[in-house]
Structure formats: C-alpha cells, structure tokens
Amino acid sequence: MNGAPASTTQQQPPTIYDVARVAGVSIASVSRVLNGHRNPRQETRDRVLAAVAELGFVPDGAARALSARLKEVVGVVFRRVPWGESHEGADGAGAEDAVAEEDESLQFTDVINRGIEVAAQRRGYNLLVGSVDVEGHDAHRRVMTMARKCDGLILHDRVLEPGRLAQLSRQVPVVTLAGVATATTANVRGDNESGMGELARHLIRDHGYLTIAYLAGHADSPDNLARRLAVAEEAASAGVMFVHGPQWQGNYLASGGAKAIRNLLAEKAWLPRAIVCANDQTALGVMYELASHGIDVPGQIAVTGFDDIPVARHLRPQLTTVRQPIQDLGATAFDLLRSMIATRSEQGNEPAQREHEEAQREHEEAQREVVLPTRLVRRESCGCGAAKAGGS
Amino acid sequence: MNGAPASTTQQQPPTIYDVARVAGVSIASVSRVLNGHRNPRQETRDRVLAAVAELGFVPDGAARALSARLKEVVGVVFRRVPWGESHEGADGAGAEDAVAEEDESLQFTDVINRGIEVAAQRRGYNLLVGSVDVEGHDAHRRVMTMARKCDGLILHDRVLEPGRLAQLSRQVPVVTLAGVATATTANVRGDNESGMGELARHLIRDHGYLTIAYLAGHADSPDNLARRLAVAEEAASAGVMFVHGPQWQGNYLASGGAKAIRNLLAEKAWLPRAIVCANDQTALGVMYELASHGIDVPGQIAVTGFDDIPVARHLRPQLTTVRQPIQDLGATAFDLLRSMIATRSEQGNEPAQREHEEAQREHEEAQREVVLPTRLVRRESCGCGAAKAGGS
DNA sequence: CTTGTCTCGGTAAGCGCTTACCCGACTATG
DNA sequence: CATAGTCGGGTAAGCGCTTACCGAGACAAG
Predict the structure, then answer these.
(1) Rounded CA gap, A73 and A68, in Å?
(2) Which of A119, A186, B64, B167 is the least buried, fewest Cβ under 10 Å from its Cβ?
(3) Strand D within 7 A of B115 CB
C-alpha cells in the first residue's frame, strides 16, 4: 500500500566525530568552537562551522547533559483530573453537562505553564511537563523520574505531600506554586490578602452587601486559607455577616462549585447576597447552577471569582474577579528556579577560596518566597453596571 | 536574613555505583535487577532493591538515554502568539478588550497536549514542550535542539515549513497534527469533510438558510481548505449561496474573526444568514463583534464553530460546532509516534536475518495518515431552540 | 641562542548508565 | 570421572559529549 516504505528509513543524526572528520580537526576543537571556549583561531572556527552547516549537526542532548552536568530542561508537574473513559472508545454521551466536563481546569495551570515555557526559552531551557492524577499513589515515583531528566522542578499546588517534597528538594532544586516556601524549596504565589481584601471591600462598601459567603477551594491549600481569611477579616471589620462552613466547601473545580450550590438549594437553605468563590472555576460552576435554578446574577446573588482566567470575560454576566498575573507567576517561578540551579552548580566549585563571598551571597539571597501583586477586576457579576457591555 | 542559608545545600543524588557498593554487588547487577534482565538470583535482587530503597536511587535520565539510545521523551512544538509586554512590567491597561487577549488560543493546543501527555505517561514517556513564535525566524534551530533531547517529535499546525520538515524528519520520527502525511512523516487529524458536511447540511436542510459564508482560517492550512470545501460543496449541491473571498479571511484566532466582521460592518457590506467559522476561536470573535453591534445571534445571523473547545458551551448563545475528539487527537499522535520510534530502533538490529518480515511489516504498516471521526454538536448559535437550557 | 610565556590543538579521562563478553560454579550427560 | 551446557555475576567497553592537561610553535626578553 505504501508507496515507498523504505523511504521511512531514518539516518542517524551526525555526531561530533563526523563534524571533526569533515572539518579536519579534533572533536575538542569542534566543541570549543560551538561553545565559544578558549577562543579558537579564525580558520578553525570557519572550518568547523562549515562542517556543522553541511551536516546539519546539533549536539545530542543526553550526551551534553551527562558531560556538562546540565540538562537545560526544567520539569513542571501538575495535578490532573482523570480522563480515561472517553479515550477508551466509549463516547460518554452524558458529557454534555457543562460542569461535568472539567477540561477547563486546564486554563489556570496551562497559562502558568505557558509563562514558564516562555521564560525558559529565553535561557535556552526546555520544559518537561508531567501530570499526576488525583489518586496520586505513585506520584512520588513519577515525579522522581522526571526529576532525573531535569535540572530542577516546578510543582503546582498539591502535587506532593510535604514529606516527599522535602525529600525531593534535598536532591534537586524545587520551586512550588501557590504553596509555602520551606528550608529547601522556594515558592511563588499571588498576593491573596491584598486582592481578596480589595474585592471584599468592593462588595461591602460599593455594593453594600450585608451577607457574604466564601465558597472554598481545597481545604489544605494555602491560597484557599489566605483568601478565606481576607474575606472573613473584611467582613468582620465591617460588621457584615460572613457565611461559611462545610456546606461551602468546593474543590477549585466548576463541578465543586455547582455541587455546593445544588446541595444548598436542595435543602432550601438560605443564601447570602454575595458568594465569593475561591477561584474562577468555582464561580463558573456556581453561576451555571444558579442560572439553571433561575436565580439572577448579580440581581439576586452576586458572584465573584479569583484568578481572572481567560473565560472569565466571556461568561454572562462577565465575571468580577481578582486578576493574578498568571503568566508572570510561571515566568517568575522559572527565573527563581534557574537561580537556584546556578547556585547549585557553583557550589561544587570554589573549594576553599571564599573570596567571592559577595557574589555568593547574592545568589543565596534569591528570595525563597515571591509574592506577585493582584488587583480587582470589576465586571458585571458583582453587580457593577454593564459599563461597556453595549447591547443594543 | 535567611534562617539557615546553609540548609539549601543540595546533596548529589546517588548513582548506580553507590547502590552497588551498598548492596555489595557490581553495577551490572544493579542495572540488571532494575531493568529485569537476565533473571538475577533472588538474594541479589533483594540486596539491590534494599539498597535502592535506602538511598532513594533513581537512575539519571541523561546517562540512561545516552547508553540505551532511548530518552523516553517526546517533544511537542506549537505556535505561540507573542506575549512580552505584560511580562516586561508594563501593565498594558488596554488589555481588557475581550478579543484582543488571545490567551485562549491555548485551549485547543493545550487539550491536545494533555492527550499526548496522558498517552505518553502510560508508556513511561515524558513530554518536552516548546513553542515557536509566529515570526518563527529561528524556529528551525529551536525545533532541532528539541529534537536532540527527544526520541521523536509531534508538531502542531504550521510550525515548520515543508522543506525544513522534510529535513528534520529524515533524522528523527515526526508526527504532524492537522497537516498532511509525507513520505517521512505521519499525520493525525479530525474528519473535516464529514463533520463540516454534516454541519452545513444541518444549516441548509434543518434551518433552511439560503446564504452561508465561510470565515476562513489560515489560508495554507489543510484543515482550513478541507472545511471550506465541505461547506462549498454542500452549498452548491443544495443551490445555496456560498459567500467567501478575501473579506472572509480569518486566522483561527478570535481577533481574526472579530476583525473580519468589523470591517464588513464598517463598509456596510451585506451579511449572509449564517456564518460558518473555521474554528471555535474565530466564532467566538465573530459572536463578540456581532453582539457589540447589536446583531442577534442566531436570530439575525447564525454562527457556528469547529472543534468544540471547552468554552464553546459557556458562550451565550451556546455555540453550535463540530466536535473533534481533541484529546484523542493527541493520544493518537503519541501512539503513532511511539510505533515509529520502535520501528526505528529495531531497524538497527536484525542485520540480515529477515525472518520477522511479518512483524516488521506490521510496524511499517503503521498508518501514515490517521483520521479521527467528528460529529455535529447542535447547541443554540445555529438557531436550534434552547432544548435543555432549562431557565426557570 | 636560550629561556620563559602565551596561544591554540590534540589526547584522553571522565559523566552514569547498559550490555557484550568472560569466567567460575554447578548440573546434566556420556 | 570427564565434558558439555546453564546460570548468574563481574569486568570493561562503549554511548556522544566537555574539559583538564599536555605539548608544539610563536614570540619577547635576557
């Protein structure tokens, strides 16, 4: 059937030896020209470069990594909700439910990863991405394997339990996202306190809402705790009723938000004037569920999110939320990780001669906890007028 | 400042030599136990495993790759729209425009990548992701570098020009997405003809629309051509007016769709009853622009998309589109690539003994062009009644 | 002319694994 | 009892790079 199956035959990529032979020099010279070391003579340089161009030589990553002890790859690991069924062939006809489909939990994570990737490219690094599923029984092994293919790791929220994290971070540089810095790991996060505080004040002062609920994310997430606290404090200081508790427990996913509301509605519970969600995903589920029960947002109940993921502005009503510089979060995490990697590799050198103490210091001082600013984005779901919605 | 800067000190991960020493065996035995070769004695096995556990040994990826000639990493490259400003510090206040922000071009690509990653994990592979920006002047070099860190490459639409692709694919297995198979590359895509045909027939027969425009994607994209043709043929055979031309040229992004409509509207051009967009992104921009001019969708103009990305159902009105099994597209691409990688590595062996011709055949026969089924998803934007929109 | 210094190539020793090959110990066979 | 065959462990040769080290030539100074 195939025209020429033989044509699929691959030829081995050229090695540095091939280049050396063609250029008539030793492999050391090739390496030196390519890496700009030791200032080779112009003629040598020309011959090597010509040979490289002729053969289309690009050095093998593994060999380079092994020899130079630098892979120029950073790993990023996130938590994934299981998939499976649809891939196994069944066409899951029930998947039409808007909140059952959690594909969009992609959003936040993926935008961060994009930020990491862009920053990495600037430094000639590549990104190795991996996910662990929620069960995560073998998460540790999987992360370890990835670690040995990288120079350092960036871990999204709740990928590893603290003990495992500590163990891992003893062997390889680790930066966490939306976690907390430890003795051996750095962390990058958005400014939950300030952003959520601003949002809460807006709801209380500008809209005059007297009852506010917080629909939580994962209970053990530092982000969740900080956001909840910020709302609680603003409510308390303004004498506004703060609603929370086990019924208001979500999971950062649209389905979690929808489910909480559905349960509340099912038992005919009283609902507050405003629902502050732990993140945009949750708000999305909440708005969907409220809409399908005919409850008007923001007329009857105001809803807000956190993150400002791209879909937020395409919802009806457009979602009021707190913007995090999502892509910057990723880029910052990479920059931090890279400085840790650099420190680590210097560490081996400079055996006794402690002269560069200053430069050394500079590296060590790389902050272990970086907090990026956030800000309120007022759109419609909080009750702000349709300022620019321009419907006819 | 730092409590204990010294504690950041990393210890080198253990090597196979450390394991061998602790277990009191040779490194060969360690390797054999770990890789299950040559059936080591039970006692040996136990000692090695104990040492591995004690030290927390995980083999170094680079060394393993170099020696085994298998990296267990596949690369995936996609095209990225530039970012830049916001990361450089400026807070780009004008970014509120819903269609200017192209973050969501993430969606389709990222879902595919997710599919690749999941499939890869099953085989113990990891994903190396990289992007090239639209200018793509050094795209070739970047892709080459990635290629040498991987066993094979999956390329999204329009990453490399055909000549470069051919050159690359001679050295490393390559699978393209939404492209066309060549002598040295395989390709995976959705069934554009069937899905778009079904959609067009729905608009024509079920809704009775008499004028239909096709808002195109990139002119040189095979997907775009196939989709356009499908619509054109259905229109022709039904005697329906098919509108197209340079004014109906988009770019697969929301901004492209919005801009086309804006221009059309600006010059007070006549608009058809239905606009079939090359993909969901484009439809999103079109709907946004129509809405801001007070044109009712689907009342005055019906709009449809292609892909069924997650946001599609959160739009108002919900977007009628053609569903591609996006995640499966990625998973299939990986499976295909892996079979190519396997073939390639077998190639070196079996020098003369051509006995296994059948098995060989089986591999060679791995399809070079895989087409996954698509299907119409009727929602609201085509004019179908709000069947399950369940307002109170 | 000798000697010291500097430049720039080549030689070879790894980097941490996998695996071909070898060898001793044991078992089955004549 | 001698011999072939099997089993399992050790030794060492790479995999394709980087780089420490050496040595040859050019040049300046003594």
Answers:
(1) 13
(2) B167
(3) no
Specify the pLDDT at position B164: 92
- Which tokens sit at A71? 């892979």
Instruction: Divide the 392 residues of chain B into consecutive groups of 10 and give the mean pLDDT of each group.
Output: 46 94 96 94 95 96 96 94 47 44 67 94 95 83 96 94 92 95 95 98 97 95 96 97 95 91 95 97 92 93 94 84 96 96 72 46 68 97 67 36
Q: Chain A residue closest to B117 (CA)?
A: A130
- What is the DSSP code (8-state) at residue B172? S
Give the residue carrying structure tokens 């809803």: A303
Chain CA centroid to CA A120, Å: 14
Alpha helices in chain A, H assignment, sequence order: 16-23, 27-35, 42-55, 61-68, 106-122, 139-147, 162-171, 192-201, 222-238, 254-266, 280-292, 326-348, 357-364
Q: Is A15 on the interface with B (CB under 8 A)?
A: no
**Nearest-angstrom CA–CA distance, A279 and A322:** 9
Report d(CA A111, CA A78) in Å as an integer: 12
Within chain B, residue ranges assigned H as helices are 16-23, 27-35, 42-55, 61-68, 85-88, 106-122, 139-147, 162-171, 192-201, 222-238, 254-266, 280-292, 326-348, 357-364
User: Chain A neighbours among B 66-95 (CB < 8 Å)?
Assistant: 66, 71, 73, 80, 83, 86-87
CA A170 remoteness from chain centre: 22
Token pair belonging to B41: 């004695």
Answer whether any strand C atom is within 7 A of the Cβ of A27: yes
- φ and ψ at B164, to 5 degrees? -65, -40
- Residue pointed to by tokens 């939306």: A178
Full-model pTM: 0.89
Amino acid A313 reads: R
For A202, the 3-state DSSP assignment is helix
The set of long-range contacts for A121-124, using a CB threshold of 8 Å and a minimum separation of 24, is A121/B130, A121/B131, A121/B142, A123/A334, A123/A338, A124/A72, A124/B145
Residue with tokens 């489909």: A101
Reference B190, options B337, B317, B355, B309; nearest CA is B309
Q: How far apart are CA A146 and CA A141, in angstroms?
A: 9
Model pLDDT for residues A325-384, shown as the tens digit of each residue: 999 999 999 999 999 999 887 765 554 444 444 444 554 556 789 999 999 999 999 999
Contact B2/A at CB under 8 A: yes
Assess B142–A contact: CB distance below 8 Å, yes or no.
Answer: yes
First to last CA, chain B: 60
**Residue A23 to residues A14, A17, A50, A54, A244: CA-CA distances in angstroms?**
13, 10, 8, 10, 73
DSSP characters over A145-194: HHHTTSSEEEE-TTSS-HHHHHHHHHHS-EEEESS---SSEEEEEE-HHH
The C-alpha of B190 sits at a distance from chain A's nearest C-alpha, in angstroms, of 15
B25 beta carbon < 7 A from strand D? yes
Q: Are strands B126-133 and A126-133 parallel, antiparallel or unpaired?
A: antiparallel
CA B151, CA B169: separation in Å to the nearest integer? 12
Question: Cis peptide leading into A5, omega within 30 of 0?
Answer: no
**Radius of gyration, CA atoms only, chain B:** 26
